[in-house]
User: Fold this.
Amino acid sequence: MSSPIGWRGLVTGASGGLGRYIAKALAASGVDLVLTGRDLVALNAVADTVRAQGRTATVLLADLSEPDAVTQLVSESNATAGPIDLLVNNAGVEVASAYTRYTETELSQIISLDLLIPLQLIREVLPGMVARRRGHIVNICSLASLGPLPYGVPYAAAKAGLAAATHSLRVEYAGSGVGFSALIPGFVTGPASSPATRPPAAQLPRSSGQCPPNASPRP
Assistant:
């Protein structure tokens, strides 16, 4: 991946969780940002932080679960900010439940937001990246994609699928100038983290580890 200084990045789920920290780190690396999510107040707060770091920030309110939202988001981003050089698929949802208690709607929503929508976003931005011969796509996966996650079966399945898609895309587009990364964070603590709401029988093992979203990497 070439230097990202002056690149334009689109971060989904930027209004909460890991999103705000991803945005801050990218801005510190010299990336101008398009921030999207469902909470306008929170998005504007993240945008203010990005601008204070000397980068531009465009806020686009979007509910990616809505029909045609992906196409509209990319179109609006291109029109208002310019071509996307870096896509961070961060938006996602996890519902902790015994598997047989999931409704069809819940299963569909989890698989859609955690797997299908990221793939649709990639399909929208990838042609332009390939044409310009530069770009990078980052998919935020999960430790659940590598091992069992009781009471989170559809989430684990979706994240495993997203990781597999990332690896396959990397091989398919080798030499195109476009890179692909699957980030596998551990379980993140905080108000939006679902492990705290799991049934007692499904609490995460201590060996899995947990950390706050703003934790610094270990040396």
